[in-house]
Design a protein that fits this description.
The chain is mainly alpha-helical and 240 residues long. It has 2 domains: 11-76, Arc Repressor Mutant, subunit A (Orthogonal Bundle); 82-236, Four Helix Bundle (Hemerythrin (Met), subunit A), CATH 1.20.120.530. Helix content is 63%, strand content 3%. It contains 12 helices and 2 strands; from the N terminus they run αααββααααααααα. It has a two-stranded antiparallel ribbon. A hairpin with a 5-residue loop joins strand 1 (64-67) and strand 2. 26% of the residues are buried.
């Protein structure tokens, strides 16, 4: 569908909306550069300032990444949960959300997702989980925390429900940053061997046992609530 000329109201919003439609329609694929500001300005009949504002809107949404320099421009991104997580961090910081709320959500959501994974995981999923556990880094640094949370991401992927996977990755992004805010000595051991037990239950296709093991595993985070309460609200959910 050809682009349409833009009227005088909400120009940047309308430019961004048409570019979104072009990206969603695969007119521009991941890794591909959008036309230049000058080209888009001519196409839409608006100033380059309006085009720049529209592209900035796409960048905030995670649809494009803007690169500077002679070979720069706005490049279409592979869609992931990062942009949504960024918005959620701001929402949580502005609200009265605290660490107990995050743990409550995880206790309700993750065991259910893990139970679905026990029923739906493919051999590729199981292999990815096994390989992940075998690549254990030395703790308790940031790499170890990300590896630990990474197993939970693998389980979420194995549930084969893109909505649950998206929600889980957003919650896990936030949870990971919360753990990284703590001093290494304060971080929960978060029994690594529980992951082996969870994987074994998934391999057996035992959804009920998987749910119970995951729930018990997450309970180890509860003692950290008081430590998280000592962190200022303005910092708790910020990216580390």
């Amino acid at each position: 569908m050809p682009y349409q000329r833009i009227d005088s109201s909400r120009r940047a919003h309308q430019v961004a909306a048409q570019l979104r439609e072009a990206i969603f329609g695969r007119r521009y694929k991941p890794g591909q550069r959008l036309p230049t500001e000058h080209e888009l300005s001519d196409v839409f009949g608006v100033s380059r300032i309006i085009v720049r504002e529209a592209v900035r809107d796409l960048e905030k949404s995670g649809l494009v990444a803007v690169k500077r320099g002679a070979r720069g421009g706005a490049f279409v991104q592979e869609m992931n949960h990062g942009a949504v997580t960024s918005v959620m961090r701001d929402v949580l910081t502005m609200s009265r959300t605290d660490s107990a709320h995050i743990i409550e959500v995880r206790l309700e959501l993750e065991p259910h997702v893990a139970g679905l994974a026990a029923r739906r995981a493919t051999e590729d999923d199981l292999g990815a989980m096994r390989g992940h556990l075998q690549a254990e880094p030395s703790g308790p640094g940031p790499e170890y925390v990300r590896w630990n949370v990474g197993f939970h991401r693998k389980v979420a992927h194995a549930c084969h429900n893109p909505v649950y996977e998206l929600l889980m990755n957003i919650v896990l992004d936030i949870a990971e940053d919360m753990i990284l805010r703590l001093q290494p000595s304060d971080r929960a051991d978060h029994d690594r061997h529980a992951h082996d037990q969870i994987l074994a239950a998934i391999e057996k296709r035992d959804a009920e046992q998987t749910r119970q093991l995951f729930h018990d595993h997450l309970l180890s985070l509860r003692p950290l609530i008081e430590k998280w309460k000592a962190i200022p609200q303005s910092e708790l959910f910020c990216r580390v």
